[in-house]
Predict the structure.
Amino acid sequence: MLLSMMLLVSCGSESDDEISEKTFTVRYEVTSNSPNEPIEIYANANDKLCQLTIKDKWTGEFVTKEYVASVYVECKNPDVLIKSRIYVNGKLKTEKEGNEQFLLSYRLKGSGPNY
C-alpha cells in the first residue's frame, strides 16, 4: 500500500524542467495619491529588471518564466501614499500600500517564502 501511495504522488508531480518552463502573465499596477511626485519603480520583467520613474500611475504587463514576481517602489516624499498590486494570469494575487519605499512580491512557482 505504501508503494502504491508513493507511485501516485510521484506520477502527479511536475519535473523541474516542466516547472522552469511554465510561463505566467504578470501585471504590475502602481498608483499614488500625488500626481506630481516622482516614484521610482523596479520590477522584474521578462527575466530582466525594469527600472523607470513615474508620476501618478503605471501599469506594466509581462509574460515571464520567473519564479517570483516583484516590484519595488520608492518616493522621496514621505507624505505620498503608494499602492502596488500584482496580478497573475488576470487575478489579483497580492497588494500593498505604504509611504516612501517598499517591496511587493509573489511566488509564481516552486516552493519557498513569498517574501
User: Anything to note?
Assistant: Strands lie at 24-32, 38-45, 48-55, 57-64, 68-74, 81-88, 91-99, 101-107. The chain has one domain: 20-106. Residues 2-12 form the longest helix (11 residues).
